[in-house]
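Hey, sorry to bother you again with one of my protein questions. A protein chain has come my way and I'm curious about its shape. I'm sending you its amino acid sequence along with the C-alpha cells. I owe you a coffee for this, so here goes:
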Amino acid sequence: MGGPERRGVRRWLPLRLAVVAAVVLVGLLVAVLARQPSDDPVLQTYEGVPAGVAQDEPVDGEPGWVLGEDGRLAVYAAGSSSCPWRPTSVTADGNQVTVRLEVDGGPVCTMDVVYTTSVVGLPDGVDPDSLEVELELVG
C-alpha cells in the first residue's frame, strides 16, 4: 500500500501548488492594475450642448463651456460624431483653468458636424465664482 502511486502524488503536488500560487499572483496583479486611477479627466460625455446653451446659440462652431450647479465644467465643441473633440487635460493656475481638447478617434471620421459635451471636474483650489476658462484645441 502506498508504494509507487503515493510517490507519484508527492512528486506532482509541489508542481500543482506552484501553478495555483502563480494563478493567484496573476489575479492579484490584474486586480491591482485595474484599480489604478485613470488620467482621463472626462467624467461624462454626451452628444449635444449642455443645459443652459440654446441649441442654435453656438452657430459659429466655436467651443464653449458652462459651469454646472454641481461645480463641474460642461465643455462643448463641434466636430465629427465619430471623432469628437474630447478633453485630455484640465489644469489650473490660480482661477485660470485650461482645458486641452484633442480629437478622439480616427483615422477615418464621418463628415458630419455635431456638438459633443464632456463634463470635467475643476482642479482643486479653483474658486468657481472667479473662474476663467481657456479652451485649447490641439490637432
